[in-house]
Amino acid sequence: MAADKERLDILLVEQGFFLTREKAKASIMAGLVQVDEEPIDKAGTKVLRSSRILVKGAIHPYVSRGGLKLEKALKLFNIDLNGITMLDIGASTGGFTDCALQHGAAYVYAVDVGYNQLDWSMRSHPQVKVMERTNFRFMKLEDLEGQQPAFASIDVSFISLKLILPPLKSILAEQGSVVALIKPQFEAGRDKVPKTGVVRDPSVHTEVLQTVLGFAEEAGFYLQGLTFSPIRGGEGNVEFLAYFQSASPQSIVSSQLKDEWIQQVVIDAQKLQNSSGG
């Protein structure tokens, strides 16, 4: 399908190799980019989104670029993971898990409904409990063999956060905190998601954020920060990072401030979308 392919320069921005298409094009023209081990020197070359892209000289600090998403949240919201036991919900290849460990997490429950995706370096890590073939919707605290988690990261697809947050509330420590990826393509109604699967309409982004953040508060998770993901999701979707605390009412952000945050982050996300050819 045509939707499974994209210009190489756009993919390089989407996947976090470069901040702008101009920088991506320069590296492509310089012969620094390989796709499935074949050098590509034309920025407009259409390649499969599933292709393995290598940029010579690029330094990736985590087992997958997904770790850069959590890294942004940790830095922007001043989250301290030192000594923390945490849940990585939707662990996949382990980018979030790797990022958390490198930022001081003591132990990570790496939970995923899939199987055999986690990078070997994470799978064999003594501070990681691999919980594959596990549907988090049905998890309980007693399913965890060690300490109760005080932090959770969420990066799930094809499911709404509305199905993840309620069981998390019963598992997370009372004063725990959460960084969750909000993905419009999986939160908006079917009539709001184009056949391409890419949600570009800022009004839909706004509606999704209002709905998810409202639900989160009803579930006992109070918003502390909101930003956009530095890396676009599947098919090029803009995604958002929300920081919640499961804490006392004095931590609640006012409705007015929350609306201001939503308005600003949607504007910022549109700039990201436009800068990478969306």
The counted number of beta strands is: 12
CATH superfamily of the largest domain: Vaccinia Virus protein VP39
Total domain units = 2
CATH architectural arrangement of the largest domain: 3-Layer(aba) Sandwich
Rg, Cα atoms, Å? 19 Å
Q: Any idea of the CATH class of the largest domain?
A: Alpha Beta
- State the major sheet: 7 strands, mixed
CATH topology of the largest domain: Rossmann fold
Strand order of the largest sheet: 8-7-6-9-10-12-11
Beta strand %: 15-25%
Q: Low-confidence spans: pLDDT under 50, at least 5 residues? A: none
Give me the secondary-structure category: alpha/beta
Family: Belongs to the TlyA family.
InterPro entries: Hemolysin_A/TlyA, RNA_MeTrfase_FtsJ_dom, S4_RNA-bd, S4_RNA-bd_sf, SAM-dependent_MTases_sf, TlyA
Keywords: Methyltransferase, RNA-binding, Transferase
Organism: Paenibacillus baimaensis
Written account of the structure:
The mean pLDDT is 89. The protein starts with a strand and ends with a helix. The chain is globular and about 55 Å long. The strands form three sheets. Strands 8-7-6-9-10-12-11 form a seven-stranded mixed β-sheet, with helices on both faces. A three-stranded antiparallel β-sheet has the order 3-2-5. With 278 residues, the chain is α/β, with parallel strands linked by helices. Helices cover 31% and strands 18% of the residues. Helix 1 packs across helix 2 (21-29) and helix 3 (67-76) packs across helix 4. It has nine helices and twelve strands. The protein folds into two domains: 2-55, Roll (Structural Genomics Hypothetical 15.5 Kd Protein In mrcA-pckA Intergenic Region, Chain A), CATH 3.10.290.10; 67-275, Vaccinia Virus protein VP39 (Rossmann fold). It has helices spanning 8-14, 21-29, 67-76, 95-102, 120-123, 165-171, 184-187, 202-218, 255-275; strands at residues 5-7, 33-35, 38-39, 46-48, 53-55, 85-89, 107-111, 128-131, 151-154, 177-182, 222-228, 240-245. 40% of the residues are buried.
